[in-house]
Amino acid sequence: MKYLIWTLLTIFLVSCASTPKSGETADTTQAKDAEKTAQKAEDATKKGASPSAAGVECKWETETRKIENKTQGEGCEVIYTKNGTSETVGSATNDLSICEGIAKRIQGNLENNGFKCNAI
Predict the structure, then answer these.
(1) What are the sequence ranges of the domains in the chain?
(2) What pLDDT does 49 receive?
(3) Averaged pLDDT of the chain
(4) Is pLDDT at 100 greater than 50 in this prediction?
């Protein structure tokens, strides 16, 4: 059983390794990532979304929760408010999609528990 666990763990760790494609350096990979991030921010602005803050408010009976996704340059921060107390639950320095994923996961959890969420 030990060997099976070690084998699976090794396969998982090796499969998560990332190497640049042949002919592609780390610098070009970083440049492409930065370009994608800038494009996402530009697309969000074109769609009418605020480049500085976005959020949802979720309600169930007398309970209210807020999820705010605040961007600062290329970084972002997810702030969750429950019972009037705000807490940063996630952040990223150069990938806005990380914060979007965190906010959507929290919203999904709330909706699965009966909350109704609307954009604010």
Answers:
(1) 50-120
(2) 43
(3) 78
(4) yes
Report CA torsion sign: 108, 113, 114, 120. Answer: negative
Q: Report if pTM > 0.90.
A: no
Please state, in angstroms and rounded to a whole number, the distance separating the CA atoms of residues 55 and 71: 11
Q: How far apart are CA 61 and CA 86, in angstroms?
A: 20
Report DSSP state, residue 78: E
| Contacts for 45 with CB less than 8 Å, ≥ 6 apart | 51
pLDDT reading at 33 higher than 90: no
For residue 42, which of 81, 82, 86, 96 has the smallest C-alpha distance? 96
> At a CB cut-off of 8 Å and minimum separation 6, what does 100 contact?
69
Cβ contact 58:116 at 8 Å? yes
- Please tell us whether the domain made up of 50-120 is placed in CATH 2.40.230: no
Position 82 pLDDT exceeds 80: yes
